[in-house]
Amino acid sequence: MKSATLFIVLLGFVSLFADMTYESARSITGPFLLALGATGAVVGFIAGFGEFLGYGLRIVSGWIADKTGKYWSITIAGYLINLLSVPALALVGQWQLAAILIMAERIGKAVRNPSRDAMLSHATVEIGRGWGFGLHEAMDQIGAMLGPLIIAGVFYFHGGYREAFGVLIIPAVLAISILLFARFLYPSPKDLEVSTAKIETKGLSKVYWIYLIAVALNGSGYADFPLIAYHFKKVATVSEQWIPVFYAIAMGVDALAALLFGYLFDRKGLPILIFSVILSAGFAPLCFLGGFYVAALGMILWGIGMGAQESIMRAAVAQLVPKEKRGVGYGVFNTGYGFSWFLGSTALGLLYDFSIPALIIFSVILQLSSIPFLMKVRKMLH
């Protein structure tokens, strides 16, 4: 138990500093791209296509991980690409070049996530799937909360985008250092899982695919933060200095929601995920129609949804996929989720330039449409 918990905590610190790096950048890429001359549609496409790459390529990296067993090597390579692309944004002056680095950062995440989540899944069986992934996500989001505050501090002291991106080399190096230390201590994380998976199928089951449809629908209606930040700056609802603070608030809520929902998921199961979908679906009207304080409430709901997506949605996959196919299971899961996120984000960007009310309706309906499929999964598991 202690050994498994320590492994989760170590990877949690890796994610803390990693998120401090790339989520800091994520908090200002919308306004940064606007400053470089990008339109709302372009920002929506870049954010969506970046997420598609970040999720879509995971089916490949997950398959390679299961086939080769090189979970650590793939994870380390992914983190290097993921993290070093961020401070490089300090060197660009055109939105096209910035877009390439944003894509590279997402590609790095695609490379490392299935392997990392597969290794995490072996450790979480000892302490509870929901709590294990929730603990990891909470540490992850502490970094995602602190990072944007660092960016806000840079702006407060009259720094610009170059200084904001450049300072992120520090948490990037810390994340990579802790990752290498974890690799030294735990060369074979699979040994942490002493129990066998409950799923009897040798492949990916029918309930797994229904669950994937539910997650894909929810993801397709979820606006990426760069588009929200773009809106805040364009209509001056939130000042440029406050935009990263709003993101930090959402990440703090994300961390708390991940712990709470993870704990409840181990005891109540999928109804907790259904509740989170209902709760978070209200972020769009609040963020895109409200003033400063209403938008802040919208970001809190947005953070709740992200906390659920990054913790209990991942935990459920570990229950639906046999141990020896976790890399592929997480890879396929994230590919479907990422493709739907890409389509939805692109549509939301186009709708933003056309009609904000249409964007809101599109977002809310797609998120809520995932609920019948989640109820079907719950029925099939009982």
Structure, described:
By secondary structure, the protein is mostly helical. It has one domain (2-190, 199-381): Growth Hormone, Chain: A (Up-down Bundle), CATH 1.20.1250. Helix content is 80%, strand content 0%. The protein has 18 helices and no strands. The protein has helices at 2-35, 40-56, 58-68, 71-84, 95-124, 129-156, 161-166, 169-185, 206-220, 225-235, 243-268, 271-280, 283-289, 292-310, 312-320, 326-354, 356-368, 371-381. α6 packs antiparallel against α11. The protein is globular, with a radius of gyration of 19 Å. The two termini are 28 Å apart.
List the main descriptive attributes of the protein structure presented here.
382 residues, mainly alpha, Growth Hormone, Chain: A, 18 helices, 0% strand
Distance between the termini: 28 Å
Mean pLDDT: 87
| Number of structural units classed as domains | 1
Mass-distribution shape: globular
The low-confidence parts are 196-201
What's the architecture, going by CATH?
Up-down Bundle
Proportion of residues in extended strands: under 5%
* CATH topology descriptor: Growth Hormone, Chain: A
Using only CA atoms, what is the Rg? 19 Å
User: What is the N-to-C order of secondary-structure elements (H for helix, E for strand)?
Assistant: HHHHHHHHHHHHHHHHHH
Number of DSSP helical runs: 18
- How many DSSP-defined strands? 0
CATH structural class: Mainly Alpha
| Structural class label | mainly alpha
Largest sheet: none
Helical content (DSSP H or I, runs of 4+): over 70%
- What is the H level of CATH, i.e. the homologous superfamily? MFS general substrate transporter like domains
